[in-house]
């Protein structure tokens, strides 16, 4: 295959909207150029429609039709990108669907014939000329021998199709089992059947598709995965190549989160889909359900753009599919179709024609439609001999008992109604258990007065689009189920009905038959404009354009995301340093990972207790006992929590964001700034108590310097609404004039006194540690690692050697003479600290007030410290390569590096301890 040089780059500095508008204008100009240069292309109405594709009745002419739509005018994405023959290069599009657009029939050991296969997706994509498309999918046949596989692959290559070979057992378990017996009923609100797990076969089949895609993938290709058969495919593809452009589109409804959560494999499927860059649905409702499922089941953040997981955004959007409306419009001029129209008009002269075209499927609402028609005839004797219902019911899955039962039920109802209201010369319902060819179908659409679409649940339903496209002369009326995706697009011009309400549908039939010509014209004009504007080609081009742009935006975000911590480098520099400082967060850093999505009571209690990760004990003991290493646990938790977890270690504990400090062999002291105003606590506490009572599974904590309301285990969407209400109430009431900061976490709201941050406290903490240990050599290695809120990330920049000196100095708070908290002592003034960067070795000593000079000479217990004015050395002698700031699970961070989970922290500290031990005593 020729190399793909398209790289998707756009002009630098443009906004997302500007890029997409530019793409749209390029497509328009390309189409205009094509049509003006090809005036002879006026016979496409003779070609076959998507119904031929769905019904599998096309001949070799249909195969050439596929080829005709494969070879379209090229679009110039980037100026100057041309093939050797001078034609512009098109981006390659790998369309991955369960079925290929052709089905294979074996004629001999190494001989195959190809026929157009069924599927609405086929018709939608055949008209797309903007891309060099290749199809990857199952050919609908089991080919166990290698000779047959080679021959079929060669035959399909001529049609730009690439087969995935599935054996009979995989097809049975994956397609007939998990796809059609589990996912399809679930997505259409039919509930889950009693089943044995077929998920393993489903994943295996998806992996087989991924293997074929990876074999044919070239850099720059767009891979477009389709439908519920391939929900696991995006993850498989991204596991192969994280840079691959992957989109996934669902052609069925996506159920509400309450329905989807009944699926045992719910979380794994959602996460697999989220591996895609862009996830598309036919309607906004389906997209909203998907985002809601991700927030409620996975506990992820839903945004207007999509779903965010630790800084990675999967875009979720609605892309309503369309049809090739020009084919239907032009087909009406073909003589063969005109003959069909004349025959139908003669056949049903003097009667209004109602039409239903559906697969004989439970979701199509055929029994409800026929019963509504019966009720209409009961209540309107005038119309009994003046209207006829033509119901085309295309058989499907005829070997499944439920479908056989549905067929018998429909036949019984039709027979009863025809017997009740029919005569020797005419019957009210003409029911056909077969499909129609394209000319006959277009003619039937053209003579219809009322189209009746009563789907109980339908992803889109393009029959309604086809009917509108063929009604330019007749101006017929569309009665459309509100549960079909097409209702979102054609609802303004159609009569929307609830198909379960037989009386309502019967009344709508009467409204349609008696509608004035002026109203029919107005309704039709609205829908006709939509159908001819929002075509299948526009749908595909828009999706791929959005996918390209989504990848560009993701790359821009990734460039701002720090790299993963290089553990080997961090350990090596640790071993060669002389005086090390390790600052470790606690919650979501040193704690055990908890299953958030399940929201089970056990996990909630477990996390609320904040227990140290059980695998950290030996590693921490080893690191803390190293005489060259000082360990500080810096946490927002209160002192009791840190006492319970760390009392046995030789380290420093800094509670409540550094406002309380102690070494584990000493008592707590406070480092709070002087005159810290806490008068706001009681009023804020009342607000937090109120919202805790009205938000199930939320809780709040009262600390010495802050109050925290946490709704992590509450319903995600309800919790966010409550948090928003709380913030509005706080700012307009209790804290409107208070000196406080409001810090919003992922699922928490914290109110703390102004200036209470980890970075603001770290210089006081560092000074106390330096004095207490009487450190005589500068600290030349710093590791600062934690899952800190944005407000507290100033702790990272505090140590940053590359910052200029006027930025690095933190404001020092004067030590207060406020009364002591029982069991603690006040922090004494500390040794003036200075930093040496890789660019400068100058001392950066802070000014010391007279009061501090007087008090700094005396330590509690009679100890004596050196006088600051007589001592001057660098507390920090920190070079760039020896500073490792690392955020845990937060990609939007000021830290230099990243680790994904607390488990990664555990693994890193274990390696650090092992390396330290293996190299002997420091």
UniProtKB/TrEMBL annotation:
<keyword id="KW-0808">Transferase</keyword>
<dbReference type="GO" id="GO:0003825">
    <property type="term" value="F:alpha,alpha-trehalose-phosphate synthase (UDP-forming) activity"/>
</dbReference>
<feature type="compositionally biased region" description="Polar residues">
    <location>
        <begin position="32"/>
        <end position="46"/>
    </location>
</feature>
<keyword id="KW-0328">Glycosyltransferase</keyword>
<comment type="similarity">
    <text>In the C-terminal section; belongs to the trehalose phosphatase family.</text>
</comment>
<dbReference type="Pfam" id="PF02358">
    <property type="entry name" value="Trehalose_PPase"/>
</dbReference>
<dbReference type="GO" id="GO:0005992">
    <property type="term" value="P:trehalose biosynthetic process"/>
</dbReference>
<dbReference type="InterPro" id="IPR001830">
    <property type="entry name" value="Glyco_trans_20"/>
</dbReference>
<dbReference type="InterPro" id="IPR036412">
    <property type="entry name" value="HAD-like_sf"/>
</dbReference>
<feature type="compositionally biased region" description="Basic and acidic residues">
    <location>
        <begin position="814"/>
        <end position="827"/>
    </location>
</feature>
<comment type="similarity">
    <text>In the N-terminal section; belongs to the glycosyltransferase 20 family.</text>
</comment>
<dbReference type="InterPro" id="IPR012766">
    <property type="entry name" value="Trehalose_OtsA"/>
</dbReference>
<dbReference type="InterPro" id="IPR003337">
    <property type="entry name" value="Trehalose_PPase"/>
</dbReference>
<feature type="region of interest" description="Disordered">
    <location>
        <begin position="809"/>
        <end position="871"/>
    </location>
</feature>
<dbReference type="GO" id="GO:0004805">
    <property type="term" value="F:trehalose-phosphatase activity"/>
</dbReference>
<dbReference type="Pfam" id="PF00982">
    <property type="entry name" value="Glyco_transf_20"/>
</dbReference>
<feature type="region of interest" description="Disordered">
    <location>
        <begin position="22"/>
        <end position="56"/>
    </location>
</feature>
<protein>
    <recommendedName>
        <fullName>alpha,alpha-trehalose-phosphate synthase (UDP-forming)</fullName>
        <ecNumber>2.4.1.15</ecNumber>
    </recommendedName>
</protein>
<feature type="compositionally biased region" description="Basic and acidic residues">
    <location>
        <begin position="47"/>
        <end position="56"/>
    </location>
</feature>
<dbReference type="GO" id="GO:0005829">
    <property type="term" value="C:cytosol"/>
</dbReference>
């Amino acid at each position: 295959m020729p190399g793909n040089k398209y790289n998707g780059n756009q002009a630098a500095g443009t906004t997302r909207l500007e890029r997409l508008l530019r793409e749209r204008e390029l497509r328009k100009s390309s189409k205009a150029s094509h049509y003006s240069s090809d005036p002879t292309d006026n016979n496409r109405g003779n070609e076959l429609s998507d119904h031929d594709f769905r019904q599998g009745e096309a001949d070799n002419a249909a195969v050439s039709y596929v080829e005709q739509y494969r070879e379209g005018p090229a679009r110039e994405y980037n100026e100057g990108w041309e093939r050797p023959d001078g034609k512009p290069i098109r981006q390659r599009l790998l369309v991955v669907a369960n079925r290929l657009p052709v089905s294979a029939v074996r004629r001999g050991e190494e001989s195959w014939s190809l026929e157009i296969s069924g599927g609405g997706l086929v018709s939608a994509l055949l008209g797309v000329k903007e891309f060099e498309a290749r199809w990857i999918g199952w050919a609908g046949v089991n080919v166990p021998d290698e000779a047959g596989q080679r021959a079929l692959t060669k035959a399909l290559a001529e049609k730009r199709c690439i087969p995935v070979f599935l054996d009979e057992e995989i097809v049975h378990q994956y397609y007939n089992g998990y796809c059609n017996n589990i996912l399809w009923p679930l997505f259409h609100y039919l509930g889950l059947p009693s089943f044995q797990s077929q998920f393993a076969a489903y994943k295996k089949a998806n992996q087989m598709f991924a293997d074929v895609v990876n074999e044919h993938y070239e850099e720059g290709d767009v891979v477009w995965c389709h439908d519920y058969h391939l929900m696991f495919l995006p993850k498989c593809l991204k596991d192969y190549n994280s840079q691959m452009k992957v989109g996934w589109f669902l052609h069925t409804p996506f159920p509400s989160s309450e329905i989807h959560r009944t699926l045992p494999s719910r979380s794994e499927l959602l996460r697999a889909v989220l591996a895609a860059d862009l996830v598309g649905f036919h309607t906004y409702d389906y997209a909203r359900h998907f985002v809601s499922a991700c927030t409620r089941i996975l506990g992820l953040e839903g945004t207007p753009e999509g779903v965010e997981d630790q800084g990675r955004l999967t875009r979720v959007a609605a892309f309503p599919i369309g049809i090739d409306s020009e084919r239907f419009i032009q087909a009406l001029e073909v003589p063969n179709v005109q003959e069909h129209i004349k025959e139908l008009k003669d056949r049903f002269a003097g009667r209004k024609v109602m039409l239903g075209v559906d697969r004989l499927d439970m979701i199509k609402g055929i029994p409800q439609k026929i019963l509504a028609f019966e009720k209409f005839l009961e209540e309107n004797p005038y119309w009994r001999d003046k209207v006829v219902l033509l119901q085309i019911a295309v058989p499907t899955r005829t070997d499944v008992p439920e479908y056989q039962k549905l067929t018998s039920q429909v036949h019984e109802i039709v027979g009863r109604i025809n017997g009740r209201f029919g005569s020797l010369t005419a019957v009210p319902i003409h029911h056909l258990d077969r499909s129609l060819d394209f000319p006959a179908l277009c003619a039937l659409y053209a003579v219809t007065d009322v189209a009746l679409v009563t789907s109980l649940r339908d992803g889109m339903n393009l029959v309604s689009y086809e009917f509108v496209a063929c009604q330019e002369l007749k101006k017929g009326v569309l009665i459309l189920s509100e549960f079909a995706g097409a209702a979102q697009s054609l609802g303004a011009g159609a009569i929307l009905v609830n198909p379960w309400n037989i009386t309502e549908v019967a009344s709508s039939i009467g409204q349609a038959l008696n509608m004035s010509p002026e109203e029919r014209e107005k309704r039709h004009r609205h829908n006709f404009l939509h159908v001819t504007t929002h075509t299948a080609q526009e749908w595909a081009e828009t999706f791929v354009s959005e996918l390209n742009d989504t990848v560009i935006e993701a790359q821009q975000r990734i460039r701002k995301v720090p790299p993963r911590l290089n553990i080997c480098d961090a350990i090596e520099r640790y071993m060669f340093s002389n005086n090390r400082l390790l600052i470790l967060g606690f919650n979501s850093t040193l704690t055990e990972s908890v299953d958030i999505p399940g929201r089970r009571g056990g996990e909630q209690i477990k996390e609320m207790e904040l227990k140290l990760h059980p695998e950290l004990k030996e590693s921490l003991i080893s690191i803390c006992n190293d005489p060259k290493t000082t360990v500080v646990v810096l946490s927002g938790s209160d002192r009791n929590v840190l006492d319970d977890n760390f009392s046995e270690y030789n380290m420093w504990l800094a509670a409540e964001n550094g406002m309380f400090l102690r070494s584990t062999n000493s008592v707590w002291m406070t480092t709070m700034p002087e005159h810290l105003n806490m008068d706001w606590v009681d009023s804020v506490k009342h607000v937090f108590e109120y919202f805790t009572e009205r938000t199930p599974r939320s809780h709040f904590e009262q600390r010495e310097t802050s109050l925290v309301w946490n709704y992590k285990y509450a319903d995600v969407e309800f919790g966010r609404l409550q948090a928003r209400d709380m913030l509005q109430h706080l700012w307009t009431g209790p804290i409107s004039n208070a000196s406080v900061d409001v810090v919003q976490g992922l699922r928490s709201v914290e109110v703390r006194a102004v200036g209470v941050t980890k970075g603001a406290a770290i210089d006081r903490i560092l000074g106390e540690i330096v004095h207490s240990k009487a450190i005589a050599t500068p600290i030349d290695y710093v590791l600062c690692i934690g899952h800190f809120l944005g407000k507290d990330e100033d702790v990272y920049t505090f140590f940053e050697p590359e910052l200029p000196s006027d930025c690095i100095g933190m404001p020092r708070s004067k030590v207060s003479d406020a009364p002591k908290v029982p069991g603690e002592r006040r922090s004494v003034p500390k040794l003036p600290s200075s930093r040496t960067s890789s660019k400068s070795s100058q001392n950066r000593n802070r000014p010391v007030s007279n009061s501090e000079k007087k008090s700094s000479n005396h330590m509690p217990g009679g100890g004596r410290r050196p006088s600051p004015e007589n001592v001057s050395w660098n507390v920090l002698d920190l070079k760039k390569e020896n500073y490792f700031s690392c955020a845990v699970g937060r990609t939007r961070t000021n830290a230099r590096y990243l680790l994904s989970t607390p488990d990664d922290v555990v693994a890193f500290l274990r390696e650090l301890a092992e390396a330290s031990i293996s190299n002997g005593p420091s």
